[in-house]
Amino acid sequence: MKRGTKQFASSFMAVSLLFAAAGCVWVFAVEPILYRFTEARDRIAAERLLLGRLEAAEQAATLVQAQKSPRSDQGERRIFLTGPSDAVRMAEVQALLGRISDSEAVSIQSTRAQPAVESAGVRLIAIEAQLRATLEQLQKILIKLERSHPYLIVQTLHVAPQLATDASAPELQLDIRIGVAGFADRKQS
What we know:
Elements (H helix, E strand, L loop, with lengths): L1 H74 L10 H18 L4 E6 L3 E3 L2 E12 L1 H13 L4 E10 L12 E12 L4
Antiparallel strand pairs: 1-3, 2-3, 3-5, 4-5
């Protein structure tokens, strides 16, 4: 019986030592590796999420830039009128004058093309327009013409008071004939 107990105790000690050794291997070898693996997997998942967000932000920025691009081409500070011919450039001058006068609630009554004049490497593409406006509206139009891009210059300006047809009009209306010109690069012609 002593022998059976000794053998049982011996077997018990061997199994206990085996579990203790396995526990030590787990604690000192497997657990750190498993911890690093889990930590690396979480870091990779977080970086993938960040990468996805950055790609989405880049696409959004590209989309915004693409949407701004056509407007910025029109609004960029350029000097010369663009277009393949003088007729197209003249239409650009007319459109610019139309936008400026519309912004001040002034309608252009008529326009007339002027002959293009070449001087010092540039062509002046001009139109003459007839409109009616108050003095304040005329001032604002002239300021906007001065600040426009491509550059426009006022070649002629004739102002006359409009004959009073309506006595209830609050402000004096002016008959205005204005000659506006833009520059075209001679190299484009």
